[in-house]
Design goal:
The protein is an alpha+beta fold. Helices cover about 60% and strands about 5% of the residues. The strands form two sheets. It has a four-stranded antiparallel beta sheet with strand order 2-3-1-4, with helices on both faces. Strands 6-7-5-8 form a four-stranded antiparallel beta sheet, sandwiched between helices. α1 packs across α10, α14 (about 365-380) crosses α24 and α20 runs antiparallel to α21 (about 580-600).
Length: about 725
C-alpha cells in the first residue's frame, strides 16, 4: 500500500510542484519565522523546574535583576580626566531604555576617591590590580536583544585609545551567543547547502537528482522549523542544529533509495525512464531499513523529553517531529525526480566508482583488529570528557570580545552565583555576633581561588558604619536607614525584612577553573556551613550552568544506554538471527565509544550546542547498518551465510554509505570555519563521527557478521548484485 501511494505521487510532472513547495516554504520560514535563538537564564530550564525556581525565588526575595558590567581600563584611573570619562559614560548608559540604574565611581560613592576607601564600592567597582574600574548597569528588562545593542553602541562611542572598555555580564554574553548562532545558521547553513549541491552533482551527474534531493531535504527542514512556532516553541539554542540534522536524515533516506533504484535496474535489466516496477522494487528494498532507522531516531529523540534542560527537551521534540517528516518527504517527494532520469544514467555512480577499489574483495581483518584496539584505548577517554566547559569557551581566543571577558573574569569574576543563607539555629542576622560570623564567612569566600567579587550583608553594614555618627545606630537601625528610598532601598537586595535570611552575591571566575562547577559550589556550601550558617537557596547562572553540565553528561550516558537497548531490539527484529544481532550490537557500540573517547582525549569541550554531534553520527551509522542487514536478508532469503553473502550485500550499500559520509562530512566540515567555537566543535565532531561510522559499517561489520554466521561457508544466492 505504501509503495502504491509513493508511485501515485511520483509522477515526473509533479516534481515541479514539489520544487515550488520547497521554495514557498523557504520564503515563509525565512521571511516570517523568527529563528533568533532566545538565550537567557530562564532558557536553560523549564519554568517549573526546581533548579530555575530557586534562582527565581532568590531574585524575588532580594529584589535583584540582570546586570551588565563595563570595565574601564586606563593608565591613570584616579585622574580627573578619567573620572570625567566615567561620568560621561555613566550618564549616557543611564539614558538607555531598559536600564534602571548605573553605578560607577562617579555615580555611587559621594566622591570618586572614596571608592578606594569603601569596603562596598572597592569590592564592587575597583579591579584588584587597580588598573580599571567597573560600571555596573542594572537592567529592568529581560529583552536582552533590545538593550544590549544600545549599551554596546554607547560603550563603543565613548571608547578611546586611553580609555579601554570591555563588556561582560549575563545579558551581554547571552546576546553574543544568540548572535553567533543566528549568524552561523545563515552563513554556514547556506555554505553547507552549496557544498551538498556540488557533491551531489559530482556523485550523480544529474540535475534532476540534485533538484530532487534538495527539494526533499529543504521541505523536511522547513516543515520542522515551522513545527516549532505551531507548537508554541520559540527558537532555541539548538535550533540551527535541528535544521541541519533533519536535512541530513532526509538525505540519508534518499541515498539508499537512489542506490536501490540503480541496484534494481542492474538486477532486472530495466532501464526505461519512469518504470513503475523498477520504482516499486526500489521502495520495497529500501523501506524496511528506512522505517526502522526512522523509528530508532524517533524514539531516541523522544528520550530527550526526560531531560530537565529546556533546550534539550525542545531539541528532542523538534527532531522527533523532523524524523517522521524526513522519512515521509524522502519517499513522497524524491521519487518523482528519480523517475525523470534513466536508472542507467548513474548506474555505477561515476563520482564514486574510483573509491570501490578501497573496499575490494578482502576481508579487512586489519580494520577489525584496529577498531578493537582503538575501542579499548578510547574507553578511558570517556572519563576525560569535558561536559562542564567554561562560559568563556563559547568565544574564540584572541578576539577582542574574548579578551575583554577574560580581563573582567580574571580581576573580579564574570558569572554570578547567589547564595541565600540563614543562621544554622534560626537566629536573626542583625546581631553583633551574627555580624562577626558573617564577616568571617565573607573573608573565607573571598580567599577561594574560584571566587572573584563578593558583595553581602556584612559589606553593606561595614559601608553604613563609615559615617562619623553611625555608632549611634544599632545594626538594625543601620538596616532600616538603608531600606529607605533615598538610599536606593539597597538593604532589600541583601537581607529580608524579618532579618532571617541574607544574600551573598558572588561573581565567580571561569578562567583557570580546574574543577566542575558543582564541585566548586559544594566547596562553597561547606564553607557556609562551617561558619554556622545554612545555604537555604543557591542560584545564579554559575549554578544553572553547573547543573546543565551535569544534565548534558547524564543525557549522554543515559541516552547512549537507551539507544543501545533500543537499537539492540530493532536489530533483532530486522535480522531475526541471534548471531547477526550480536554482530550489529558489537559494531554499533563501537561508534559512540570511538567518537566520544577521541573527543575526551582531545579535551574538546562538550557543550550544549556540540553535544548532539555523537548522536547524529550514531544515527547515520545505524541507518547504514540496518540497510546492510536488510539487503543481506533479502538476497539470502533469511539464510545468513559466510563472507560471500556479506560481500554481496556490501556491494549494494557501499555507494549510499560512502556518498552520505562524503557529502555530509564535507558539508559539516564547513562549520569548522566558524568563528563561534561551539559551532566549530559541533561540525568537527560530526565529521569525525561520520568517518568512524562509515568504517565500522563497511569494513568491520561485514567481517564480524561473516565470522559469526559461517566463517568460511560460501552460499550460492539466486539474487545477484551484478
Amino acid at each position: 500500500m505504501f509503495s502504491s501511494l509513493v508511485i501515485a505521487l511520483a509522477r515526473p510532472q509533479l516534481r515541479w510542484v514539489y520544487l515550488a513547495l520547497a521554495v514557498v516554504l523557504g520564503v515563509i520560514v525565512i521571511g516570517f519565522v523568527d529563528l533568533t535563538p532566545e538565550v537567557g537564564s530562564d532558557f536553560f530550564f523549564s519554568t517549573d523546574d526546581p533548579k530555575l525556581q530557586a534562582d527565581t525565588k532568590i531574585d524575588q526575595m532580594f529584589a535583584s535583576g540582570p546586570q551588565i558590567i563595563v570595565a574601564a581600563e586606563s593608565s591613570q584611573v584616579q585622574s580627573p580626566a578619567y573620572f570625567e570619562e566615567i561620568s560621561r559614560l555613566s550618564a549616557a548608559l543611564a539614558k538607555v531604555p531598559g536600564v534602571s540604574e548605573v553605578r560607577s565611581v562617579t555615580s555611587g560613592p559621594k566622591k570618586p576617591e572614596d571608592a578606594w576607601k569603601s569596603p562596598l564600592w572597592r569590592r564592587l567597582l575597583i579591579a584588584p590590580d587597580e588598573k580599571a574600574t567597573n560600571v555596573i548597569i542594572q537592567l529592568n528588562t529581560d529583552d536582552y536583544d533590545q538593550v544590549v545593542p544600545l549599551v554596546e553602541k554607547e560603550v563603543r562611542r565613548h571608547e578611546t585609545p586611553h580609555f579601554n572598555l570591555a563588556i561582560s555580564g549575563v545579558p551581554f554574553v547571552a546576546e553574543q551567543i544568540s548572535r553567533n548562532l543566528l549568524q552561523d545558521l545563515k552563513t554556514f547553513g547556506l555554505a553547507a547547502l552549496i557544498m551538498f549541491s556540488v557533491l551531489i552533482m559530482l556523485v550523480f551527474r544529474s540535475v534532476q537528482v540534485l533538484l530532487g534531493a534538495l527539494s526533499a531535504c529543504a521541505i523536511s527542514a522547513f516543515l520542522t522549523l515551522l513545527a516549532g512556532p505551531l507548537t508554541g516553541m520559540e527558537a532555541g539554542l539548538l535550533t540551527p542544529n535541528v535544521s541541519t540534522i533533519i536535512f541530513v536524515l532526509t538525505l540519508s533516506h534518499i541515498m539508499f533509495l537512489a542506490a536501490n533504484w540503480t541496484n534494481a535496474a542492474r538486477q532486472e535489466g530495466a532501464g526505461a525512464c519512469g518504470d513503475e516496477d523498477l520504482l516499486r522494487n526500489a521502495i520495497q528494498w529500501t523501506v524496511p531499513g528506512s522505517f526502522w532507522s526512522m523509528a530508532a531516531n524517533l524514539l531516541g529523540f523522544l528520550t530527550l523529553l526526560l531531560v530537565a534542560a529546556r533546550p534539550i527537551r525542545q531539541f528532542g521534540i523538534s527532531c522527533s517531529i523532523g524524523a517522521v517528516i524526513a522519512f515521509a518527504t524522502a519517499y513522497l517527494v524524491f521519487p518523482s525526480f528519480l523517475r525523470a532520469v534513466s536508472a542507467h544514467h548513474f548506474e555505477r555512480w561515476p563520482g564514486l566508482e574510483k573509491l570501490s577499489g578501497l573496499l575490494g574483495s578482502g576481508r579487512h581483518t586489519w580494520a577489525l583488529v584496529t577498531g578493537a584496539v582503538l575501542a579499548l584505548l578510547a574507553i578511558p577517554g570517556l572519563w576525560r570528557l569535558n561536559t562542564d566547559p567554561s562560559l568563556l569557551e563559547y568565544f574564540k581566543e584572541g578576539e577582542q570580545l574574548r579578551d575583554g571577558l577574560d580581563r573582567i573574569d580574571r580581576t573580579g569574576g564574570s558569572v554570578p552565583l547567589k547564595i541565600a543563607i540563614a543562621d544554622g539555629e534560626g537566629a536573626p542576622l542583625n546581631t553583633d555576633e551574627a555580624y562577626k560570623r558573617l564577616w568571617q564567612l565573607q573573608e573565607a569566600l573571598e580567599k577561594d581561588k574560584d571566587v572573584g567579587t563578593v558583595i553581602s550583608l556584612p559589606v553593606l553594614l561595614a559601608e553604613a558604619k563609615r559615617p562619623a555618627l553611625s555608632f549611634l545606630l544599632s545594626l538594625e537601625g543601620l538596616l532600616k536607614q538603608m531600606e529607605k528610598p533615598e538610599y536606593g532601598s539597597i538593604a532589600d537586595s541583601f537581607v529580608t525584612r524579618d532579618r532571617r535570611m541574607a544574600l551573598f552575591f558572588i561573581r565567580m571566575k571561569e578562567s583557570g577553573r580546574d574543577q566542575a562547577r558543582e564541585e566548586v559550589v559544594r566547596r562553597l556550601d561547606s564553607k557556609v556551613r562551617r561558619h554556622g550558617f545554612v545555604p537555604v537557596l543557591v542560584g545564579g547562572l554559575y549554578r544553572l550552568q553547573g547543573q546543565l553540565s551535569n544534565l548534558i553528561a547524564r543525557s549522554l550516558l543515559e541516552g547512549l544506554v537507551f539507544l543501545f537497548i533500543l537499537f539492540s531490539l530493532i536489530s533483532g527484529v530486522i535480522s531475526r538471527n541471534g548471531r547477526v544481532t550480536a554482530a550489529m550490537i558489537a559494531c554499533f557500540s563501537l561508534i559512540p565509544v570511538l567518537v566520544l573517547g577521541i573527543i575526551g582525549y582531545l579535551r574538546m569541550s562538550v557543550d550544549l550546542i556540540s553535544a548532539p554531534a555523537a548522536n547524529v553520527a550514531l544515527g547515520i551509522g545505524i541507518d547504514g547498518m540496518f540497510h546492510f542487514v536488510v539487503q543481506a536478508r533479502r538476497i539470502s532469503s533469511g539464510r545468513f551465510g559466510g563472507w560471500d553473502l556479506w560481500q554481496k550485500a556490501r556491494e549494494l550499500v557501499w555507494r549510499p554509505v560512502t556518498a552520505s559520509t562524503l557529502i555530509i562530512s564535507l558539508g559539516f566540515g564547513l562549520f569548522g570555519l566558524s568563528q563561534f567555537p561551539p559551532t566549530q566543535r559541533f561540525g568537527l565532531a560530526v565529521v569525525g563521527g561520520m568517518f568512524v561510522s562509515a568504517i565500522v559499517v563497511l569494513l568491520i561489520f561485514p567481517r564480524v557478521a561473516a565470522y559469526l554466521t559461517g566463517r568460511d561457508r560460501s552460499t550460492n544466492y539466486t539474487n545477484d548484485t551484478n
